[in-house]
């Protein structure tokens, strides 16, 4: 059975090929449509990348399970020792708009833990990588999270997360809110300290955060769901209950400031 470092090499090669495919559609008016149940947009590029990745990855690891945003649910993944967790294009709205901030998010889970991960931004030519017990790298160079704390930290999150109802005593901590279209990229930006934290109080799909969670963890950030619990992957629902990713001090401050019983969002 190949180890995480070998799987990482496979993921990196696949992510770069995915980038080539995505760039052939980017700014070329790809066909797009809305998914059912208000699940967001999808394009012909998402599907082409998904098909290519499935062929590249499962062609080499046929015994690995497969969980992807753009594939039909396959319950057999739950019985697999290893599982690929893939978002072919994370940030599809940005991709449709011709913006640079979309990524490919590729991970391998062993049991309920991520052991190899890649987040690749093809337009920016930036690749984040990590594997179990190895370093987190950005284009081959080690990364570390910031040592920021409240007040004044810069947090990557969506607008609604700064509403008073999510915070103890309806007191929103003093942080500056920023946003980037790819959730996978947001985790990596927190991992490398360009921003101080990534926060989501909504349930997150595993394919959006699997790769970024390991990259942030191996960089030295504290990574948890919104309640401070360890994230678990390849679950039946394929969702994680929000996320807090930050250096240890800021992570603790954000967790302590959150209202334990969250309002609907």
From TrEMBL:
**Which residues does the record give as Mg(2+) 2 binding sites?**
90
Annotated CDD domains: CysQ (cd01638)
GO BP annotations of the record are: inositol metabolic process; phosphatidylinositol phosphate biosynthetic process; signal transduction
The record's GO molecular-function terms, alphabetically, read: inositol monophosphate 1-phosphatase activity; metal ion binding
What are the UniProt keywords, alphabetically?
A: Magnesium, Metal-binding
Cofactor requirements of the protein: Mg(2+)
- Enumerate the Pfam families for this protein: Inositol_P
Which positions bind Mg(2+) 1? 69, 87, 89, 208
Sequence similarity? Belongs to the inositol monophosphatase superfamily.
**Which PANTHER family does this chain map to?**
INOSITOL MONOPHOSPHATASE (PTHR20854), INOSITOL-1-MONOPHOSPHATASE-RELATED (PTHR20854:SF4)
What name does UniProt use for this protein? 3'(2'),5'-bisphosphate nucleotidase CysQ
What are the top taxonomic ranks of the organism?
A: Bacteria, Pseudomonadati, Pseudomonadota, Alphaproteobacteria, Rhodobacterales
């Amino acid at each position: 059975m190949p180890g995480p470092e070998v799987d990482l090499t496979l993921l990196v090669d696949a992510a770069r090929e995915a980038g080539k495919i995505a760039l052939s559609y980017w700014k070329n008016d790809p066909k797009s449509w809305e998914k059912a149940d208000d699940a967001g947009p999808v394009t012909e590029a998402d599907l082409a990348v998904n098909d290519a990745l499935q062929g590249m990855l499962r062609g080499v690891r046929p015994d690995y399970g497969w969980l992807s945003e753009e594939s039909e649910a396959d319950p057999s993944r739950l019985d697999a020792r290893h599982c690929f967790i893939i978002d072919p294009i994370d940030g599809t709205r940005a991709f449709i708009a011709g913006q640079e901030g979309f990524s490919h998010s590729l991970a391998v889970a062993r049991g309920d833990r991520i052991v190899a991960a890649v987040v690749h931004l093809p337009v920016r030519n930036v690749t984040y990588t990590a594997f179990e017990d190895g370093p987190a790298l950005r284009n081959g160079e080690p990364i570390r999270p910031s040592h920021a704390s409240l007040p004044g930290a810069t947090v990557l999150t969506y607008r609604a997360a700064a509403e008073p109802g999510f915070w103890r005593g309806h007191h929103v901590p003093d942080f500056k809110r920023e946003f980037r279209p790819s959730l996978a990229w947001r985790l990596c930006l927190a991992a490398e300290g360009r921003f101080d934290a990534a926060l989501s109080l909504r349930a997150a799909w595993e394919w959006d955060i699997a790769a970024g969670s390991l990259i942030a963890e191996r960089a030295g950030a504290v990574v948890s769901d919104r309640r401070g619990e360890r994230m678990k992957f390849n679950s039946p629902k394929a969702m994680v209950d929000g996320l807090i990713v930050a250096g240890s001090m800021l992570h603790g401050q954000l967790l302590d400031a959150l209202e334990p019983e969250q309002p609907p969002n």
